[in-house]
Amino acid sequence: MTSGTTRYFADHAWLGPLGEGDGLARDVLIEVTGDRFTAVRPDAVRPPDAVQLAGLTLPGLANAHSHAFHRALRGRTHRGGGTFWTWREDMYALAERLTPDSYLALARATYAEMALAGISCVGEFHYLHHAPGGHRYADPNAMTDALVTAAAEAGIRITLLDTCYLTGGPDRPLAGPQLRFGDGDADSWAARAAAYRTPDHARLGAAIHSVRAVPADQLGTVADWAREREAPLHVHLSEQRAENEACLAAHGCTPTELLDRRGALGPRTTAVHATHLTEADIARLGSSRTSVCLTPTTERDLADGIGPAPELARAGSPLTLGSDSNAVIDLLEEARALELDERLRSETRGHWAAADLLAAATAAGHASLGWPDAGRIAPGALADLTTLSLDSVRLAGWQPRTLLESAVFAAASADVSDVVVGGRIIVAEGRHRLLGDVAGELHRAITGPART
Ligand SMILES: [Zn+2]
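Above: the input record for the complex with zinc ion. Below: its predicted structure, written as tokens.
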């Protein structure tokens, strides 16, 4: 053991998709130096100086798709029903009021809630760039900086997916609250995004809001920006049938085909939702190795539908998971929903093993966010750990043979007891070590300047 090394001792650990068999191991001694794992030894004897991780330890969870400010809408958009499009009006009304300071407070509290839920890295799909009316802040990346600072203060990593959002639809300029999203054209978006310098806990990626929000002849500019930097490129894809119909009317093809034609698909691209697809769309996404991010709790909430996730996985698309609108922040719920929603769609069970669902919530998600060195407990990987206590009523009666299934199908974010991010303890015994009263921070942020 070298100086500056911290040792953890996990009763049970799932070592990640690269583990043997189902990847479960017992009595695992984990050594961390700096922000990396330096040794991982199953069947070890606990040294007296090791930090005990009681329960089941997983790699840190990756939340591959988030809009932090939507957290303030939780529970407030259900009365009276409505549609995706009326929900969007509520979201715009909230977007209109946020400032860099109030967004920092709201995002910090939201990311702290994520940390408490075992999330070590968030992909923030960020489009609220400018001041009301589209006026530029003195620092044109003030809102980006608020989010990156919020993640640092909440103790998690962030991939800031700087989102190009130029139009309200084909040939429809931005209007009202949408003016805050717009950079004018893709070249101006690219110049602003490129000017941001990320600190160590952050990486910068690109996003195309959707094919309705970026004119077809400017999609290539965003794709090229990401390609030149070898950065992630994310895009909302076919979340609603109306998006497909508008694309067909304007361009004579599906959104997937349009993105493919403009060079926007590939192994560094993640299509978010991918709900309403043709067989040809599935083949294009799979053969290009485009990842697909499912956000089942949001898709339920917004009545989006259930996408063809097994078909996409079989075609070659890695699957990832996100909390998206943050109506729920629980990656275990997203993971089991992938399987359970498919059971409802197909009327059959057993589409994914628990380890496959955890792979979506860990390694695949981190890779899609530009952190391929996270998401597994192995020497050399980033030292992110999430420990689930096995003591709650939800998990009482668990058996070693089916521990992974208990965790995925019965545990909740409330069972997360300890979280380590980059070798630093962020959550201990269910308490956020940096912020303490996260519920209070959320309450103040939501009922204060960001109130709806
Ligand atoms: Zn989204």
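Notes for the reader.
The chain has two domains: 5-59+375-432, 61-368.
The two ends are 53 Å apart (CA to CA).
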